[in-house]
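Many introductory courses stop at the sequence. We go one step further.
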Amino acid sequence: MRNPLRAVVISATSLVLLGGLSAGPVVADGQHVAAARKFVCKASADRPHWSKGAKSVIYKTRVECAGSEPTIKVRCKGQLIYAAGGSPSTAASSDETQSVKTDGSKTTFYTPEAGGKKVKWSGKFQGSTHCTSPGATVEIGDATTPVVPVKVP
């Protein structure tokens, strides 16, 4: 089952919309809307898997944006959660900020991030990411994967 994606539109006031990308005008109030910066972003996460290149269990968060700015800064904090027999625990994490183009193309954030902790054991894993736009201090939303078994070769 796919998780719903959250999108954010920035105008004179902040509005949170659920659904796909739309760069259409949003009128929150009658003043300052024409001069306001506007963008819409959504985040999604791929299932955790073994990466030959990273030599680790990883998952990817993909962020896509549309809007009147050519790029916006997006910060994503991710957790790769190991679901063992007891309580779930964080196997690796990430905290990364990237410039994301607002042309609808996807930008990828990795957990664990490059140079981060390697996860080299098999088990059940889940990815959970929280993304914001630091410059506008706006919540873009969360992306969560299902719990999936990953076998390390």
